Every structure is written in structure tokens, then in C-alpha cells.
Amino acid sequence: MIKKNKAKRADFWILLATILGSSLVFMDGTVVNVALPEIQHNLNARTTTLQWVVEAYALTLTALLLVGGSLGDRFGRRRIFAVGIVIFSIASLWCGISESIEQLIIARSVQGIGGALLVPGSLAIISGYFPEEERGKAIGVWSGFAAMTTALGPVLGGWLVENISWRWAFYINLPFSVIVLFVLYWRVPESKNEYAVKLDWIGALLVTLGLGSLIYGLIESVNLGFSNNQVIASLIFGMLFLIGFIYSQSKITFPMMPLHLFESHNFSGANLLTFWLYAALGGALFFLPFNLIQVQGYTATEAGASLLPLIFIIFILSRWAGNLVAKLGAKPPLVIGSLICAVGYMLLAIPTVGGSYWQTFFIGITVLGFGMATVVAPLTTTVMNAVDQKYAGIASGINNAMSRAAGLIAIAVLGIILFNFFNIYLNEELNKMSLPQHIIEYIDIERNKFAGIELPKEISEIYKLQIRESINFAYVTAFRWIMVVSAILSLLSACTAWLMIDNKKITN
User: Fold this and answer.
1) Could you count the other beta carbons within 10 Å of the beta carbon of residue 300?
2) What share of the chain is helix, strand, coil (3-state, %, to 5)?
3) What is the pLDDT of residue 147?
4) Regarding the domain delimited by 2-199+256-423+475-500, which CATH topology (the fold level of the hierarchy) does it fall under?
């Protein structure tokens, strides 16, 4: 009985350290979303430049997650986890003191490096400590908190922006980092893979250059157009680097992403499902705050709080969903949850400008919460159980890299879709008005700010009201297309689960 109690106490501390540490990474992936409008105003940035505040973080995080998993397996998961915390903390401080958008972007990229060491280590520590029959429940708890903090980011960010400063969206990481380091060295045992091999730095370089070039080309296409030589070159080189990465993984002795892992239908299917699912979520969580704050007139706190139903539902139901894998197998919750997510996105496409939150966004956000709660834990458990435990760190890194790459690419691609539809609808609305040429020229210069267009003071109030209504209508209509695309991506998730995930149940 004493040994059992001691084991349970150890379980608690291990979960606490891994959840707190990885939650900082997940939360910082979304905490800035609500702060972006204020950052845009404070640092005088275009929306396309603002995208890099999110993309720079996601780029280094995505590209180096695989290295992070390998480093943990080789040098010790607790040790690398701790190094990640330190780097993440220093970068968070740098983000907070940044005085230009360029400084902030660089600091965010360093923050992503720290995060890449944290996330795969957290899951690998859990997988290495808990036996298979208990792993689903433990991962369910981890997934619940991870998903909750991802959604909690906008709430916390909104409150900090409105009541203190957007800079505190980064400073808040510092005290939690100290707590994690204390618990980590006090209670968490070290673990590593005794068969770990040397690191694949060539692969890490190729995937970083590939994703970076590809995302740069996609984002800059909004400003320069797809026919621009710089954009074309970036896209071509991005694809070549990524092809080179896949080729290198098939040839080198110790790849960072062993391709033989994808011979498992469960592993390859779960990662493809992850890509579709988190592409939808990443795009929605990036563009929704702009709608709520700049169009609907929500305060930053209200915009963040609008996601509370999503948070609570995921938190309450994730442990239950983790147990479903043992009872029903992974396929049913993955298929059903993805379909529910698709319905949620379609409901978010309905609201126009104005209206009560409870009659507009609440319904879609709530339904989306039920869908994500049903999917998150079974998906993570499927990934971790699809490979031998000696590959736990690598498997975790691959899956997390897939989710981050999905959001990274989705924000860039959906930004193009939003920009084009926004301009189409805005032109239609402006053509209905007889505006002076200098006002039209001013709006053309400001188009890259989307709903954040700031009209000059010398314009009459009548013109301002009409133009603002046109801008709001154009953004909401374009935003609906983003939600439709997110719904389609969720349907692809359901199809992937149905076709590729088996229904193996875990028995004690």
C-alpha cells in the first residue's frame, strides 16, 4: 500500500512537470493571437508582417522538434527538457523587451528552439515511465491540459493586453519556468534510450530551410504576387529542400525521421490526421481574434474569454476520451470527433457583423470543443502506441512537428485566401460609393492590415462610417471562407481515421 501511494505521488509530480513545461509551449503558440492587433498598432506592422510573429515561432519549433526528440533520447530526456526551459525563458524575456517588430520576430524564433526541446521530451518522459496499460490515461491527462492551455492562451493574452501590456504575454512564462525546473530536478527521474544514435544535423538544416523558404514564399505572395521572381524562387527552393530532406532520411544511417516508422498504418494515419486537424485549428485560432476584436468590437479580454467553452470542454472530457481507446479502440473517437469539429467550423461561418456572443460564436466554439476533446487524447495515444518505446522521443517529435507544420502552412495559405476574398468583397463595396481618389489610394496602401485598416482623421464621419462598414463586411465574408476550408480539413481528418487507423483495443 505504501509503495502504491509513493508511485501515485511520483505519477503526480511527473505529470505536473511535463504538463507545465509543455503547456508553456502550447500556450505561447496562441497567447499572442489576441495580442496581435495591439502589437500591430504599437509596432506599426502590417498583417502580413504580423504573421511572422506566429510563423517564426512555429517554424523553428516545427523544424527542430525532431532534433529535440533525438537529443532527449541520446543525452537524457530530463536534461534536454531542462535546457529547453532555460532557452524558452530567456527568449520570452527578449520578446517582452522587443522595441521593433523585427526584434520580436527574431526572439520568437529563439523561443521556438526552446519549445522544440520541451514538447517531445514531455511525452517521452511519460511514455518511458508509465506502462502501456496506464499510458492512455496519463497521456489523456497531458493532452487535456495541453489542449486547454493552447486554448487558454488567448484568454490570458487578452486579459494581459487589456489590463497591463502585450509584453506580459511573454513575461508570464518566467515564474512558471522556475517552478518546472524545481519540480523537474526534485521529483522527475532521468531516462534515455540506450540505443540512441548520433544526431542528423543535415536533416534538421534541410527541413528548416525547406519550411522557411516555402512559408516565406507563401506569405510574401500576398505583397508581391505569385508571379514575382522572389516568390517563385522561394517556393521552388522550399520544395527542393523538403524533397532533399525526405531523400536524405532514406539514405543516411541515423535519420532524424526514420521513414520505417511510417510503415505502420496507425503511425502514418495518425500523423496525416494530425496535419489536417491542426491545420484547421491553427488557421481558425489565428484569424478569429481579428474578427472578434477589429470587426465585432470585442475587447481583448472578451475575445480571449470567448474560447472558454472550448477550454472547459476539452479539459473535462480529455481523460474520458483517453479511456475510450482502451474500451472502443482509436477509430470511433477519431472519426466522430473530426466530424464534430467540421460542424463547429461551419457554425462559426454563420455570424455576420454584430449580435450577441451567445447567439453567434458561442455555439460554434462549443461544438468545436466537443470535437477536439474527443480527438486529442486518442490521437496522441495512437501515435505513441504505434511504435516501439525506444522510438518514443522520435515518434513524439514527428507527431508534434506534424501538428506545428500544419499550423505553419495553414496560416500562410489561409492568409492568401483571406487576402484575396477580402480584396474582392472590399472592392465591390467601395465601388458602390463615390469616394475621392486620395481616399481610395490610402485604402489601397493599408489593405495589408485587413480589418485593422486605420482611416485618416481628415475623412468625414459619414465616409468613415461607410468605409468601416465595408471593411467589416469584407473581412467577415472572407473569414467565412476560412471556416469552410477548416471544415473541409476536418472532414479529411475523419476520412483519414476511417481508412488508416485500426481499431485495436488496449487490454490490461
Assistant:
1) 25
2) 85, 0, 15
3) 65
4) Growth Hormone; Chain: A; (1.20.1250)
